[in-house]
Amino acid sequence: MSQSEKKPEISEKQVTSLQKGYQAILEFIDEMEQLSQFQDRIDIPSNINQIWEAFVDEIRKSINVDVCGLFMVDEDTHEFVLQNVSPHDKGSICKKEIDFQVECGTFSWIINRRQPALIPSLVFKNRKTIIMLPLSTAKRTLGIVFILTPIEESSITHKNLKLLKMLSRQCSLMMENALLYEKLKKEHENLKKAQARIIQAEKLASIGRLTSGASHEILNPLNIISGHIQLLLMDRGMSPSISRPLNIMQEQSERIAKIVKSLLQFSHYGKQEIGVINVNDLIEKVMSMVEYEVKHHGIQIVRELELNLPSIMGDDDKLSQVLFHLISNAKDAMLNGGMLKISTRALSGTNQLQGKPESIEIRFEDTGSGISEEEVDKIFDPFFTIEGAGNGPGLGLSICYGIIQDHGGTINVESKLNEGTAFFIHLPVAVESKP
Ligand SMILES: Nc1ncnc2c1ncn2[C@@H]1O[C@H](COP(=O)(O)OP(=O)(O)OP(=O)(O)O)[C@@H](O)[C@H]1O
Ligand SMILES: [Mg+2]
Description:
It is built from ten helices and twelve strands. It has helices at residues 12-41, 48-62, 91-104, 106-113, 158-233, 240-266, 279-296, 316-333, 373-376, 396-406, and strands at residues 67-73, 80-86, 117-120, 129-136, 141-149, 274-277, 299-305, 312-315, 338-348, 357-366, 410-416, 420-428. A hairpin with a 3-residue loop joins strand 11 and strand 12 (420-428). The site of adenosine-5'-triphosphate (ATP) has 22 residues, from helix 8 and helix 10.
């Protein structure tokens, strides 16, 4: 071998450090593989619980785990709430441990540090080790992961912690995306509901204008026809073959008049007698009239009327009509009995009046037949009726809608077929209202 081909000498030290470097690269590849496996298990969109389950599996691959708990920050109260725990029966002991750690100040120290921390358990027997993994993004803390391991603190390696930290970072990003997706979905649904309400209000307003004009045009000739029939019927010597059809004509004219008057009511016709109303008293008054009959149909009535409910301004008779109507519909929907719950509560606004009640809610919940998804959007439409329910012309709810709208309020419905229906009425409280 010539002088120029002579291989450079490698010292033993260099070999060891090359081996170490090689080992480190292999470990790094392993870690990356585990991270990508975790990522691959999560479909988009996933919810927090799906991400959590995949995360717990990855944790178990890296370290021996007894209990694993997820505490998420509640957006309203900013408190840490236990969202999930594995195994499921360890929830209360997990919460107890966290309460103790909060009391000692360890908890806030870990949150502020935003780094994994090893602490001795204060609650679990044999004083096992707890690994706390904060879940946070650049902007905020989402929660904290609680891992109870039988391994002694001194045996938990830097490598273990590094991998857990990488997994928790990945998990934080996925959870943040899942939360944003949920929020966006909710906002989209609210927007869709608001849009549907506007379309419904527009539709009813234009039907209202049309029916109000047409109803007056019908009532005038109808009164003339009815008057003439009555005159003819006064003839005592009339043969039954003539008086019978005349009586039928009279009956049917009265029926037409009743429907047309309902239509006028729907189109907000008629004077309102406005006064101060205590809705709880009004409900009691209406209930005292119908309770016997409703109970007779095997329907249990539950009242949850809020004490000191603020008063509203309104027309006593018209609002009673709404209550009667909702009760009558609920009764028709519970032909085999059931439960009707009537509740009231005051609602606070979100503007400068926050804290003071701005409106009241009257809620009617029944356990009746419910309404299908396709039909629920149409129930406030005039003449919409579902066969077999009641036998009316389908004007009741549209009249209720008009009355509540005239009071500056809203009426909404939520229903599930074969489970039940809930109507929510919101009415503004009277200015300077005293309960
Ligand atoms: N609580 C309820 N549970 C189930 N279905 C209901 C309930 N309330 C209303 N509905 C459905 O909505 C339809 C429309 O109700 P609405 O009160 O307007 O008309 P109606 O009761 O059929 O007739 P009318 O009230 O004019 O006598 C009803 O036919 C009924 O099927
Ligand atoms: Mg009805």
